[in-house]
C-alpha cells in the first residue's frame, strides 16, 4: 500500500495501488477541485508531485494536452483525476487554487 503524503498539511494516508490520486485525496477528506472527475478536461485537479513520480501511471495524451493549457504548470505537474498510484510512496503538493478554470 502506497503512503500518500499531502503538502502543505503534511498529512499522510494509506492509499490503494491503482486508485487515482484524486480518489485517494477525496477519501481522506482533502479539498481539491475536480469538475470533470477523470476526463482530464477541466484542469481543476492540477497538483505537483514532489516525490514518487516514477511509480505513478504515465501521463496520457489527453492529460499532457490539458496540462499544456494550464498556467503555472511545471515538470512536477499532474492531473490527480487521471494519475493512478503505484506501489511506491508518493508526496503531492496541493496548489490551493483552482488552476485551469
Ligand atoms: S477533475 Fe477535471 S482534469 Fe481532473
What does this structure look like?
This protein is α+β, with helices and mostly antiparallel strands and 101 residues long. It has helices spanning 21-27, 61-68, and strands at 3-7, 11-14, 46-51, 77-79, 90-93. Strands 2-1-5-3-4 form a 5-stranded mixed beta sheet. A hairpin with a 3-residue loop joins strand 1 (3-7) and strand 2 (11-14). The mean pLDDT is 93. The site of FE2/S2 (inorganic) cluster (FES) has 12 residues, from loops.
Structural class: alpha+beta
- Average pLDDT, to the nearest integer? 93
| Overall 3D form | globular
Number of strands: 5
Q: Per CATH, which architecture?
A: Roll
Q: Which H/E pattern describes the elements?
A: EEHEHEE
Radius of gyration: 12 Å
Provide a count of the helices.
2
**How many domains comprise the coordinates?**
1
Sequence stretches where pLDDT stays below 50 over 5 or more residues: none
CATH class: Alpha Beta
CATH topology: Ubiquitin-like (UB roll)
What amount of the residues lies in strands? Answer: 15-25%
In which order are the strands of the major sheet placed?
A: 2-1-5-3-4
